Amino acid sequence: LRIVDIIEKKRDGEVLTKEEIEFFVTGYTNGSIPDYQASAFLMAVFFQKMTTEEQGHLTMAMAESGDQIDLSAIEGVKVDKHSTGGVGDTTTLILAPLVAACGVPVAKMSGRGLGHTGGTLDKLEAIEGFHVEISTEQFIQQVNELKIAVIGQSGNLTPADKKLYALRDVTATVDSIPLIASSIMSKKLAAGADAIVLDVKTGAGAFMKTLEDSRQLADAMVAIGNEVGRNTSAVISDMSQPLGLAIGNALEVKEAIETLQGKGPADLTELCLVLGSKMLLAAGKAASDVDARAQLQSVIKNGEALRLFGELIKAQGGNAEVIANPDLLPHAQYQIEVPAKQSGYVSEIDADEVGVAAMLLGAGRATKEDVIDLSVGIVLCRKIGDYVKEGEPLAILHSNKQQVDDSIKLLQDHIYISAEKAEAPSLIHSL
Ligand code: URA
Ligand code: CA
């Protein structure tokens, strides 16, 4: 095989074979194919796209390019959830103990990542003593005993994706559904999932801003998953405003505890029930949506889900007393109100800008080296559709500095208020 022939074939819109795709992925990962040829290949895919079968081959080749986590020593169907990311998305912290309490093994590998707030790992580290660096053996043992464990990414997972993603970033080829879908799915497969539930976000605060693009990405990932033999389903959920009320690491842990107590924000609770139901169905633990939902609601009501969150914290060295006493979480020195500049209904919240306001307070990272302040963030007092009087708070900033004019201005400028009554957006766009 010669890479130039493979580039030409894709350039002319032909369908590549498994061998040709593997040749490209292997060659680029080991350095025998140079950046300029890989760039030409990616641009050809950008314009000519790929069939589901080709995307399946690309996904598998990337998943197999480095270490793969073997979860076969864990009994039962290992269901992973993946969200394409948004602002204040606290779902993993809630879903993991929620579905584990229903008997689904949760072997979660999470990331830190860049963004408005930390990743799941950073949030968990807001709990004093919690550590995520445990060996693979301990990880598997903990899941077998407790049904739940969360670790950071260890080993050399999907090096092909890391290298290709960096190249796409500088060759204007990020925005390609076959490339995004195979990138995301390769990481889920390498992490050992038998079944995958995808939460594809849509709206102003999401990676995919339009419903049409989100639907295409969801369809592509579901098709790839099923092509490579993993039961895969997707939900498209709203990110036109932040999910829940809290944005910030310790603040989101508190919100997760409240949600596990059955006292969480309605949208966050509902999304967890929808995603959790899909996870129970994929694991064969529920006969129907109605049955799944009833099981999830029952482990919230009887305290089992919250108890398991406490067990997880204890097993990984954290102070489980935060469950009963969330005031033990780190908290910021100042709480500063963001007053509404006029009376009316909140008609729109630019989630991305709320995220930026949280980042300015220190809740997130702009570069990999940045240190997060786990105690800071934003708690929204109003969401789309709510009425607010001039001078009443739109949000409360939790900050360790007194000078927060930039965050206040961002929120006042991007939480839009209208005289007419506004409708709350629907949370779930498509199942
Ligand atoms: N997230 C990923 O993991 N990969 C992409 O290509 C885009 C977003
Ligand atoms: Ca939240």
From TrEMBL:
Any GO BP annotation: pyrimidine nucleobase metabolic process
One Gene Ontology cellular component: cytosol
One Pfam family in the UniProt entry: PYNP_C
Highest taxon of source: Bacteria
Keyword Lyase (UniProt): no
E.C. number: 2.4.2.2
Any coiled-coil regions, as ranges: none
Catalytic activity: uridine + phosphate = alpha-D-ribose 1-phosphate + uracil; 2'-deoxyuridine + phosphate = 2-deoxy-alpha-D-ribose 1-phosphate + uracil; thymidine + phosphate = 2-deoxy-alpha-D-ribose 1-phosphate + thymine
Cofactor: K(+)
InterPro entries named among the record's database cross-references: Glycosyl_Trfase_fam3, Glycosyl_Trfase_fam3_N_dom, Glycosyl_Trfase_fam3_N_dom_sf, Nuc_phospho_transferase, PYNP-like_C_sf, PYNP_C, Pyrmidine_PPas_bac/euk, Pyrmidine_PPase_CS
Keywords: Glycosyltransferase, Metal-binding, Potassium, Transferase
Enzyme class: transferase
GO terms assigned for molecular function: 1,4-alpha-oligoglucan phosphorylase activity; metal ion binding; thymidine phosphorylase activity
Family, per entry: Belongs to the thymidine/pyrimidine-nucleoside phosphorylase family.
Function: Catalyzes phosphorolysis of the pyrimidine nucleosides uridine, thymidine and 2'-deoxyuridine with the formation of the corresponding pyrimidine base and ribose-1-phosphate.
Name recorded for this polypeptide: Pyrimidine-nucleoside phosphorylase
